[in-house]
Amino acid sequence: MNIPSHFPSEPQKIWEYFHAINQIPRPSRKEDKFRDYILQEATQLKLKTHTDEVGNIIVYVPASKGYENHETVIIQNHMDMVTDATPDRKINFNTDPIVTLREGEWIKADRTTLGADNGIGCAAALSLMHDPSIEHPPLELLFTMDEETGLKGAWGVDAQFLKGKKMINLDTEEWGSLYIGCAGGIDYDFKKTVEMVPAKIETTGAKLVVGGFLGGHSGVDIHEQRGNALKFLMDWLNSMPQDSFELNEWRGGKAHNIIPRDAFALVNLKDLKLAEAALNTVTARWNSFMPESDRQFFGRIEQDATIFSEVLTAKDQASLISFMMAFPHGVHAYDLASNKELVALSNNLAISLLVKGQFYLESSLRFFDRGECVGLENQVTALAHGFGMEFSKNGEYPSWKPVRENKLLDLVAEKYQELFQKKAKITAIHAGLECGILRDKIGPIDAVSFGPTIMGAHSPQERLHIPTVVPFWELLKAVLKSL
């Protein structure tokens, strides 16, 4: 199996598989080609497999010699990836491979998401199938579907086909950390039909464009206070005299788990200078508080000779902008009891569309304590009631509450210290892992999650830190040898 010259040579099998995986399109809900690839690899090695109704795969890897009577261990990853690209990158994620590049110590993609989340974990699991020199107990390699859009694969897992009571999840992104907990989540959709009327302003049609924000993962990056392009766009519109423009359309956001990087609005402008002045005011204000890493954002006005013939009524225009301004986004609480740096509660204003009189908004709430989330839920639903919105809950998954009394964790921490002469950080992550759902389905199990360092997940800045891949692999092998 050939790999690009910019890939490292070791661990050879992991890099070979990671390259092979990135040649296979695997957006959420369309992982069938990758699933077929895994089944083909397992068949060639004469390994038993099980595919459930949802499309999840279990590959059963027999124990190494001398480990036949050891307890079975589950190795868990998801097959899908978040698909996002910069505006100037033309790619069809349903058909095109991911083009990789090397930048110093990092592997990244050519202006798209890389798919290291969770492709590098899948590559490690596939490598375990191939190397007979690795000592391990019986393994159940669980590859789930559709994790990135609501953990739907995990919900569909049939526990009767899993014997393991210890589970290692390889879907985390900070090397040196052992994760024993993750956030739960709830997605809400908001909708409203608004009235469109003939335009009155006949001066200038324009597209108000916002872009350049980092975006990123709405869980692990939310604490960095990265800008939300939709929030900036609404701030801009709200800063203009409401009788100086007429609103035809807006669009922003890509997915529930991505902080919006880009957005635009189509408007008729009475006075171009008023729009420019509002943009300058809002830009200066945002630059005063935005983190330095996310100050490459921009707003611009693209004039159009076409006047938009249908626009919102003045009442609906003001109402929708006010709703968007009031809608919460960002961190709402930290875990002050046990880890003051860990986000305990957040909301991502993820997607909003206003097209042909149909308004839509999707938000993603994350929490560790379900009870603490109720107040934020009540806030967004009360806001919707006040503005006459229809709303519905579009999926919920449980948190994985940290439990320190965990024999598997103790072993992984011990092996980490033996290998690297330092202690691992034991923590939880403000993102959704499948461990919470799987623990509910399988029953009481010891679980831990670790992986190499991935930065910028869920964005075109996603990159994999090469120096962390070898130690990640060595730790996984050492743990399996000791189980």
Beta fraction of the residues? 25-35%
Structural class: alpha+beta
Biggest β-sheet description: 9 strands, antiparallel
- Assembly type of the chains comes to single chain
Rg (C-alpha, Å)? 24 Å
- Kindly state the number of beta strands: 23
Question: CATH topology of the largest domain, which one?
Answer: Aminopeptidase
Quote the average pLDDT: 96
Unreliable parts: none
What helical percentage do the residues reach?
25-40%
Task: Output the CATH class name of the largest domain.
Answer: Alpha Beta
**Domain module count:** 2
Using the alpha-carbon principal axes, give the shape.
elongated
CATH superfamily of the largest domain: Zn peptidases
CATH architecture of the largest domain: 3-Layer(aba) Sandwich
Number of helices: 11
Distance between the termini: 31 Å
Write a concise synopsis of the structure shown:
This protein has 483 residues and is an alpha+beta fold. Helix content is 28%, strand content 29%.
Task: Spell out the key features of this protein.
483 residues; alpha+beta; Aminopeptidase; 29% strand; 9-stranded antiparallel β-sheet; elongated; 2 domains; Alpha-Beta Plaits
Q: How is the topology of this model organized?
A:
Blueprint (H helix, E strand, L loop, with lengths): L11 H10 L10 H13 L3 E4 L5 E5 L11 E6 L21 E4 L2 E4 L6 H15 L8 E6 L7 H4 L10 E4 L7 E6 L1 E10 L2 E3 L5 E8 L17 H11 L5 E8 L10 E7 L2 H18 L8 E7 L5 E3 L1 H13 L3 E6 L3 E17 L2 E10 L2 H17 L3 E8 L9 H14 L4 E5 L5 H8 L3 E4 L4 E2 L7 E3 L3 H14 L1
Parallel strand pairs: 3-6, 3-7, 7-21, 8-20
Antiparallel strand pairs: 1-2, 2-6, 4-5, 5-23, 9-18, 9-19, 10-15, 11-13, 11-14, 12-13, 12-17, 16-17, 17-18, 22-23
Helix pairs in contact: 1-3, 5-6, 5-7, 9-11
